[in-house]
Design goal:
Length: 508
Amino acid sequence: MNGEPVHGELVRNELVHGLLDAAVARTPDAPAVRDATGMWTYRELDAYSRAFAHWLRARGAGRGDRLVLQLPTNRRLAAMFYGASRCGVIFVPLNPAMKTFHLRQVVGNADPKLLIGDGTTAPRLRELSGTVHLADTVWDDVEELRAQGAPFEAEPVRPDEVVTLIYTSGSTAAPKAVTCPHTQVTFASRALTQALGYRADDVVLCRFPMSWDYGLYKVLMTCIAGSEIVLADGESDLVLLRRMRETGATVVPVVPSFASMIVSLARRDGTDLPPVRMFTNTGAALPQATTDALRELFPGVRVVRQYGQTEAKRITVMPPEEDRERPGAVGLPLPGTRVLILDDEGRELPAGETGEIVAVGPHVMPGYWNSPEISAKAFRTAPGTGEPCLHTGDYGSLDADGYLYFEGRRDDMFKRKGFRMSTLEIEGAAMDIPGVRAAAALAPTEEHDLALFVESDLAPAAVLKGLAQRLEPAKVPAICRCLTEFPLTQHGKNARQELALLLRGSGN
């Protein structure tokens, strides 16, 4: 990060706002971003980003300063992202649902120069950090600056400078901020756009907030492809299928809970479904029944499996044209990257053997913000080459053709009755039982034996009987709880912490 700023076309290509500049140069009047209130072209998105950059500069924010925003994901937030990039200001988006307990930790860690909230989030932010700018007031200023049309000359930002901090959910510990420089972010965005085959005529409906990398990177990937993104975070579940139809959505990123909801809505509506050509999945594996239903309801659709962590954005993607091949595989490494499988001594394992998944390449981030000790455990250098690599803490194997098979996190693996097993294996077996809509297994602890939660109208005994038909006796849980609705995290994943509390509260 030291040294003189670098200039030139090559550098602009590695900067986040350079992606927008390139899109404006190609197709200035093409639709860029849409939300519930309207649509902007690339030219309009660019103008708003420059006006917001003026606003930041007028308040003394510059290179390396952190900007914390706890706002809904909409067109304004996308413009703020690009505008912060133009100033060298580090964009720190937080989920509006983040509570004070984690918010206090995050604000203390980020030490922001400026904070922006809305009517709901600003009071919580003020309790922690004094002055907070209200989003509506900020936007009034931005509209005025845009109307004035004053040109904005971007700061001479270096590609290795940080563009955003993405905080993990904090579901099991204090939230950590993944430090994301321009170079890694733009490389990962381009590689993922290429791997998934985004097209200029695509309309990508994104249900996820920009506080999660799954949502944030969609803004960049559509910009690279010159396609349109529909930001649907916060819109009612009941209108989402209609929204997909109205906007002509062709690509829809999903997690299992969202995919199941689409299936339910599509079965209810029956006809006139949107022209979706691809569903992309991450966060957790889709149950096979959900995948089959998506293919049945949306003829010809690709359901693409992926694997990744925010610390390297995405690690593998199943080629879309191979979405029905190699069941269980989560894809090939991103273009320009590698995956290693290492044993406990750091030695590379051959195809077919299970070990830790290690990502190698220019998409690997440099570490966690202000957390050198934690960073040193995960972010290292590859043996032999010295390339940056991420020790994921996940376990899996590669086949002879280089396809990755994910088997679970270190925390998911455990021994019971002399057998090594994974919570993922037990959850997969539970999801195979007709009538089970969601499943989460909790590994044994000193407080409880192996436990399973399912979302189902079945009785616990029926679920356990179904598991006994699918698993070895040692892998059948001792405890089963059936819920009518599953608690989920802000990102739509199973809220394991809440399930553990339910188990504790029930006295097992």
